[in-house]
Amino acid sequence: MSATETEEEFRARAKEFLAEHATGLKFELPDPRGANELEACKAFQQKVADANLAGITYPTEYGGQGLDKSYDRIWREEYAKANDMTGQLTISHGMCVPMLSEYGTDEQKAKYLPDAIAGRTVWCQMFSEPGAGSDVASLQSKAVLDGDEWTLNGQKVWTTLAHVSDYGLIVARTDPEVSKHAGLSMFIIKMDQPGVEIRPIHQIDGGMHFNEIFFTDVRLPKDALIGDLNNGWRLATAMLMYERVAIGTGSSSGIKTPTSDYLMKTAKKHGKTDDHVTRQALMAIYMEETTKSLVSMRTRAEMKAGKTPGPGGSLGKLHGAKIARMTRDLAMNLGGPAGAAWIDGDEITQRLSQTTLRSFGANIAGGTDEIQKNIIGDRVLGLPRDISVDKGVPFNELKVSS
User: Fold this and answer.
1) C-beta atoms surrounding 140 within 10 Å
2) Range 33-48 average pLDDT
3) What is the DSSP code string of 86-112?
4) pTM reported for the whole predicted model
5) Are 78 and 256 a contacting pair, CB within 8 Å?
6) 155 three-state secondary structure
């Protein structure tokens, strides 16, 4: 873009680009592992980068455009009016890229950010373990410094798109002799290196986007550490904040009601728009999505360029989970018996069923509803914190599940 491009000129250019290229994702089905959809997202993101519209607020030396937040807001506003073309890149762009930008060294940013911003590489994040879900600080994967390399051993679970990711950010224990929050560190890991085994998790909706990952004597270079040693809890918290903003606000801005729009179209196809109960349910979802959009706009307005978002991101995340719950009954009512046992080729009722099944994950991914309520109560409303019985106890003295 021109260094003198005004906001009005930028908006016009964004509109023109989206009208030409954001025409809806086209990929081959079935796609249980999400690989085909991801390739379609990457192809679109490369076009965004080629048009100098990617990474708007990131410095030009790291593959961005070097513009202020007002241009990013304009892009999100225009993107909200188009088809979403980058859903499979949410973790890369909404979580990993911001973390690399804020906490990475200059060398790390120069090496990884340009390709990640342009969609040439895909990133995943690895927090949860079989014995450390909501209580992430209880994780047992460990990294031990051995000369100029770290040796990583352990297991992660529920890692979205790990099987098609090039890199990942992983939190591991580097000091078991201090309290569980104090002895963690974050690392950059190449997902196809020796010692990394990725196994698919079969989901109830037929997909396999999640994975469990085993690390056996994985060697990481010393400079794979991101941020300070044993400061991983701070980074993990920051990344979770980014995750909740990404889940709760999406990649667009403005009022957007995709769920109610889809359900309204489906209700029309099934001839149920005159049913008063259906109309009331549709309106309730529409109002909730509108409210979520307003909360999301406020959250993004409060975020300063390059700074970790605050706990308010949990509000949008909790709204999204509520909308998912509200959607379930209505989707099944619209589909009727076919929603549970559709005929091959009936894409409408099949999608309704999959929407219902996938909705349960909204109450868990990115932190359970209970975790979000605790964060909102503690850090937004200032209510008293829950009692912590293991505060200050060294991790190697704790009894944790494995």
Assistant:
1) 19
2) 97
3) -GGGHHIIIIIHHHHHHHS-HHHHHHH
4) 0.87
5) no
6) strand
Residue 21 structure tokens: 């290229």
- CA 82, distance to chain mean position in Å, is 20
53: nearest Cα among 25, 72, 81: 72
Q: How far, in Å, CA of 325 to CA of 159, rounded?
A: 23
Among 267, 264, 259, 312, CA closest to 288: 259
Q: Is 20 a catalytic residue?
A: no
Class of domain 125-232: mainly beta
- Looking up tokens 């999301």 gives 296
Q: Kindly provide the b/e burial profile for residues 345-381, where b requires at least 16 CB atoms within 10 angstroms of the residue's own CB.
A: eeebbbbbbbbbbbbbbbbebbbebebbebbbeeeee
Q: Which of 78, 243, 288, 289 is catalytic?
A: 243
* Residues of each domain in the chain carrying CATH 2.40.110.10: 125-232
Q: What is the tens place of the pLDDT at every residue in 295-342?
A: 877 777 666 544 566 776 788 888 888 999 999 889 888 888 877 777
CATH code, residues 7-90+102-120? 1.10.540.10
